[in-house]
Amino acid sequence: MQHKDRTLLEDAFYTDLYQRHAPGLFAYVYRQTASREDAEDIVLDVFLMVLQQQDFATFDEQKQVAWLWTITRHRVVDRFRRSARQQHIPIDPLAETLYEDDELSPEREHLKREEYTQLHRAIKALPGEQREVLQLRFGFGLRCAEIALVLDKSEGAVRMLLSRTIRTLRDLYASAGEEGQTNQRKGEKR
Amino acid sequence: MKEPEQHFSSKSIDQQTEGVFSELPTQDSGLIADLYQTYTLSREEHSRSLQRIWSRLAQAQEHYLPLQEGQQWTGSTPLSKGRKDVNANRPDAPVPGSFQRAPQPLPRGLRRSLWSKLSAGVAVAVVLIIILSWVLLTHAFPMQEHRTTSGASLTLGGGPQLNNTIVFLVHNSEGVQYLATISFDTYDGHTWSNTAVSRSPLPANKRLSSEGSPVHLVTQRITLVNPAGEQQPYIVGAGQIASVDLPTTALINKTTGSLIAVLLNNGQPLAAGERYTVQSYVSLADITELRAIPFPADAPQLPQNYHGPLPSTYYNPAILRASLRLPKIDPRVKELAQQLTAGAQTMYDKVVALENYFRTSFTYSTTIHPPPGAEATAWLLFQSNHSAFCNYFASAMAVMARELGMPARVVIGYTAGAFDAKTHDWVVHGSDAHAWTQIYFAGYGWINFEPSPSFSQFPRPL
């Protein structure tokens, strides 16, 4: 039997590729499908295709990223086409699907913890887009550049959105909880 | 309206939301820590999804690309190996956008404020868990009356009064399986209980994710036979419960996210003859793999602001906090634990040394006479004539493990029961109620150990 001679470096290449891109791709698919199982299946498919694409490692990084995201977006669209006959799935679930779906699951149970109720309320009061950017930043651990790919926005726009969100939250949080220190801030009050 | 940008210049917001707390005004660093905390379980859940995809990928990969022996992507524990290698090659290179985690440790003042918030929930939780499982709690360590674990069926009295009626029939998809009902993480010297428990509805067939890997799913069909008055409305399962075909309520440790137990939804016992099907995650960890896992204290520390993949030796700090705590214990307990394990090199071997100590140096007896108020571990080790029953062994092993810095907890439930060759069901009696010990191994999750003499050890692949 003939073994392919793969070096550790090549394996590290795939491990690294996965670690770099899987979180963002997964977040994107999960956001689109609102199903953890489907998202896992689709991301698996995408990386299987990478493995089959013999010359993938020779692409430059920009092309690798573009390739991954194009395939992933196609996969998501395919899934909607296939399932469209059976049931209606909102193709643009915006923030609600992800957020509300998550809230039913045990993983979000801790949000009900008393000491977070206040923060939870503040988050809930945010517009959908801002809630989503928080979820992607803190819930998926994505950086702005990746959030930009997930939301199909420019990186700059995401940074702006995130910093505005945190500022809004801070104000809501502070005014709701009357936590001291509010006055300690550098004094610019709007 | 012009928006002030001073606090978060756009260039640095990635860093600023990643835990460079010292550079932020106190209030903002608190907010960001709270945000991380708020999304902790969500983040862990996603990380587990990514691990599952990776495992499946590695399995599929075997078919695409046959590899030479000794190379990576072998399919057995692919994730940990893959991750280890990446870390070994590039220890300081953070991988952007990979398994991000909450910044740890937090600055001291901040940690204190988190703790004070957490402890606020504890009192509520204690009341909750006592209401939920008061029978189990109050009977886990009886002072005078002697009974084994699943208490509710057992009346008070001097001698052991094990209920010998059939509790349930179990059909296993494979093997001999213990039936776990609930785990306990908090010990006060007399009683094991849980703090900071939250309840969450678990719809029928909804799949929870596994705390460790590799695992496989074991399916069990449980038929209630004699639930009258004794049966807790707990779902039993061979390991960490993955799903139940009835609507249930999951009890989850708030600080660690660990599943503690699953309750029937209405809190009412099932009637005789009713049945449910439960799927559980059973660890596939083999001895070689477990031997490779270091003590939490020896696990490599991640550099601050580390954003790369979590190494397979990473211990969740919340689990360590919850599973290493001890009340004041006789110092001889720790000394003995150190002596017993001095010859063992790895954490796994030290656990086995403790397990074997109980298995070989004690006898199993339900007629015991601990003085009221005595701390159970010291009593068992130094005053008991080395004779007691499962609760004491399970507890003492967990306490000794904690003394040595190994995350440990106590689980109660039932042994596998007796196999009925005609029906191919396992017949579980009230007298099969049991308690045993679990040790947490980084990456592999909670692993079963059996300190009670005369009970079979958990089988583990070599």
Write a structural description:
The complex is a heterodimer of chains A (190) and B (462). Chain A is mainly α and 190 residues long. Chain A has eight helices and no strands. The radius of gyration of chain A is 20 Å and the shape is elongated. Chain A starts with 7 loop residues before the first helix and ends in a 13-residue tail after the last helix. The model of chain A is unreliable at 1-10, 85-112 and 178-190 (pLDDT under 50). With 462 residues, chain B is an alpha+beta fold. In chain B, 32% of the residues lie in helices and 20% in strands. Chain B has eleven helices and 17 strands. Chain B has a six-stranded antiparallel sheet with strand order 7-10-6-1-15-14, with no helix packed on it. In chain B, strands 2-13-16-17 form a four-stranded antiparallel sheet. Chain B has a three-stranded antiparallel sheet with strand order 5-8-9. In chain B, strand 16 and strand 17 form a beta hairpin. In chain B, helix 10 (376-382) packs across helix 11. The radius of gyration of chain B is 23 Å and the shape is globular. Chain B starts with 12 loop residues before the first helix and ends in a 13-residue tail after the last strand. Classes of the chains: A mainly alpha (190), B alpha+beta (462).
Please describe the structure with a list of short key phrases separated by commas or semicolons.
heterodimer, A: 190 residues, mainly alpha, 8 helices, disordered C terminus, B: 462 residues, alpha+beta, four-stranded antiparallel sheet, 11 helices, 17 strands, disordered N terminus
Explain briefly what this protein structure is:
Chain A has eight helices and no strands. With 190 residues, chain A is mainly α. Chain B has eleven helices and 17 strands.
The overall strand count of chain A is: 0
Instruction: Tell me the structural class of chain A.
Output: mainly alpha
Counted beta strands of chain B: 17
Number of helices in the DSSP assignment of chain B: 11
**Gap between N and C termini of chain B, in Å?**
68 Å
Radius of gyration of chain B in whole Å, from Cα?
23 Å
What does the overall shape of chain A look like? Answer: elongated
Model regions low in confidence, pLDDT < 50 over at least 5 residues of chain B? 1-11, 19-24, 64-161
| Backbone CA Rg of chain A | 20 Å
